[in-house]
């Protein structure tokens, strides 16, 4: 590798440096008409005559809109297009996805890559599978690094890496929709989640976390029961499975089993909606262990009479911060859009094997959404808004976009994380889930659920052994938080008032603007150092706030007058501050109930 | 009469060389601008046209003094054929642009009456 490139790679991409520092490209590097080229699969990657002209023409052909702030390109080759691309689009960020590490090594061997490696506007994603690319892109979106991306690929890669390109675009299409949906979800539910979390932390000194379950169910079969309509035919078999498999009922399935007087060992919930509260509030049996996340509706936790344990779903930042404050570690479980996703990750965390799913229709089997006994009232199939797909038997079935996302999540999790465990989809209906073997429930039971095991006793034993936070430590912490919340309130009110004043009568055009704005920044700094803010508010509504800031920034960039720029930025800031002020009011309401 | 037919064929060939050059330019441009990366069909038509042009130039040899370098033409045709077999579209357009198009310009210059 070229020494200068090596030094830059070490500084900018230390992980790639470690991988490639002692390697040379396995591709044959050739010279055609005085230009470096790569010989791959019996062909050259670049023009054998004028690679620079070829690259320049390709760049010229790209028609990238002004509001697209980033360009994602699959394929780098020897990087001939970098210079013309940067000349044509100097302000846009470049995300270069090179699926071929040998090509990247060749680039480092023959090209002067120093400026590209050092450039903060360029990121190289080398040898990353489509799933990782998707997650990284999602991260860039969420953190506001990019907002509108132009996607393309080097022409030569269209043939060489066609499958990879298709996979990337499939993943990104799904992801883009999900990211936008997340902004809307975040905006809609943020206050409800915040209220629930603050209410539910009451139980930190009453319920143990799930750590005490670790290693107690290794290699035991687990059945994850979801509420799909196909569950009805599996109910009689579940009744006889009590001491042969760990039964986890999720969300509405807890109510269905309760209705049919079938006892689950564990019931799980994390939905913050009041409907979820109703499910767990109205259960007649209090035998199952209730495993919940703190964002669940507070009524569910407050009213369930049985034993309870808590976990932290990925993405929830408040409980880990609170736990850190209390000096405890929190067990994190990967979560998706559905509680069944979390249950799958939980079963995996418990090291259960095999994992058996029932009632996971992800579709309107027999035009129904739930098996009988669910507490939710739902509408039936609506052909104008639902999607016609094929079920696991190839027959047409109606589903909805959210279920297709759920299925994609399952498939991704199974493909990337569950490859060492047997997983069966015994729903016997609904959408196919790639990676989960479709089997008749009765067959899987007779093959895998044969040994008797006292799951109930093991759970009780674990619950008893669970560590609790001392009540006095917890009370002291709550007092500290209450005090800190009051400071938060004062600081937030002050900065909202000052910002309103600045926007009033165009005061942002006056000479005192900078001094007044500095005062707002000082208040913000103080607020961000506040204990309550750091634990509960720093990550609340973050997706929405990042999206809002980004949108405002783009709008401000378009303005040419300094006054107009200030007005746009201050209005955007006022929206964010007002949101935070709202979170503080919600927090105050929830804290008063402690 | 025979001479008239030869002259007619020669004139048509000259016009056809112009058409081949324009076809190559369009094909190359479409490839590089992403309008169409599938250049196989167009290349097949161009190679057929090239062979026909060579035949016509041999048949009208009495009207011009140009010597066709058949060895070179064959080399280019063989390379085009190999690139097509491998679906190496980039090399196909390279050959069309940097080998065939300049060759046609040379022919045109030599054949055009001063």
3D structure, described in words:
The complex is a heterodimer of chains A (about 600) and B (about 110). By secondary structure, chain A is of the alpha/beta class. In chain A, a hairpin with a 2-residue loop joins β2 and β3 (about 45). Chain B has about 110 residues and is mainly alpha-helical. In chain B, α1 packs antiparallel against α2 and α3 (about 70-85) runs antiparallel to α4. The mean pLDDT of chain B is about 90. The interface of A and B includes residues 42, 47, 48, 54 and 60 of A.
Which descriptors would you attach to this protein?
heterodimer; A: 594 residues; nine-stranded parallel beta sheet; four-stranded parallel beta sheet; 23 helices; 50% helix; B: 114 residues; mainly alpha; 79% helix
Concise synopsis of the structure shown:
The complex is a heterodimer of chains A (594) and B (114). Chain A has 594 residues and is α/β, with parallel strands linked by helices.
How big a fraction of the residues of chain B is strand? under 5%
Mean of residue pLDDT values of chain A: 89
Overall number of strands of chain A: 18
Fraction in helix of chain B: over 70%
Unreliable sequence segments of chain A: none
What is the spatial order of strands in the main beta sheet of chain A?
13-12-11-10-9-8-14-17-18
Cα distance spanning the termini of chain A: 62 Å
User: Largest chain-chain contact?
Assistant: A-B, 17 and 14 residues
